[in-house]
């Protein structure tokens, strides 16, 4: 009975609960997949997938070349209301008439991006939305990457929710060039402030952006070592929206996966006491308790991500323990008494053991004829019996004694002498 209660540790209960939940969620997903109806393209047309734009006049939409007219009308000399309206219509027209947007030029992108320097926050937000619309065309996405530093500074230096969301949505749709990594490293604390103090929509977007940065090898340590106040764990609340929790769990999973990469493990990193690494992966972290509460979240996607993170953290600890040990094939040298714990008294008693006792042999002593002494040997072969029943030492068969004063016999004579002695 005592052995049964010893197995009911907190660690074993957590592992059993996590495993059972993961099996349940996987089984439920597979069952839903098998019961799902066959693919029908018409369903997607009727689904009404939401697109972020305001309604426009159907007459305006059907006018060919309207996008070009709007771009030609856009000018810094317009009043603020005209700028805002024109940029807004450009954004909606790009989504509705992608074929016309495809014939735009890089000069059009440069024109729209110039309004990021406007003094009005609303106009800056509309310019960010227009640039985001242009990213649906691949060649314009490459051009817009040139404005990543400008957008990142706008997001972190301007505390406006709409502007932050628009800027983060644009950054999440772009590839972050390597030459901007030093800037991103410097702005990490600002992104963490948005994560802790902004509204839900901005938090979701900044988590997506941080997850992208966590996949960059040269930025992973900086994210790990960034300052994270204790209230960071308050984000893992079951009462928060499911989309926010999912992005938060994906972010932690990316950090856990990057932490175990060979490149990251090859360096002995040092972390600050209040760093994000210590809050999530530290010995005193309370993240596991928060994750257990998310397993019973009403949304299945949150439950699945929570189970994945728990298993990832468990694997992270196991592999970290293995990686922190000696490398495979290492030559570990210990003292003769260190690894066994045998005391000097026990060694003296072992020396009297029959297997350790040495049979006396004439060759084991130092003689006047210059024979060597084997008293320092740590291994002594046992005596055995020959065919005649006499005992002999195994080393005698290989011993050759050369004495020039008595070795003038012919080999045949030696054989005869040996035979006669037998």
Secondary structure: elements and pairs:
Blueprint: H1 2-7, H2 10-35, H3 41-46, H4 58-61, H5 66-73, H6 80-96, H7 98-101, H8 106-113, H9 121-134, H10 138-144, H11 148-157, H12 161-172, H13 181-186, H14 188-197, H15 200-214, H16 217-224, H17 242-259, H18 262-265, H19 276-281, H20 287-294, H21 300-324, H22 344-350, E1 384-385, E2 391-392, H23 411-421
Antiparallel strand pairs: 1-2
Helix pairs in contact: 2-21, 5-6, 6-9, 9-12, 11-12, 12-15, 14-15, 15-17, 17-21, 20-21
Summarize the structure.
By secondary structure, the chain is mainly alpha-helical. The chain is built from 23 helices and 2 strands. A two-stranded antiparallel ribbon has the order 1-2.
Structural write-up:
The chain has 422 residues and is mostly helical. Helices cover 57% and strands 1% of the residues. The protein contains 23 helices and 2 strands. The protein has helices at 2-7, 10-35, 41-46, 58-61, 66-73, 80-96, 98-101, 106-113, 121-134, 138-144, 148-157, 161-172, 181-186, 188-197, 200-214, 217-224, 242-259, 262-265, 276-281, 287-294, 300-324, 344-350, 411-421, and strands at 384-385, 391-392. It has a two-stranded antiparallel ribbon. Strand 1 (384-385) and strand 2 (391-392) form a beta hairpin. Helix 11 packs antiparallel against helix 12. It is elongated. The model is unreliable at 36-54, 332-382 and 397-422 (pLDDT under 50).
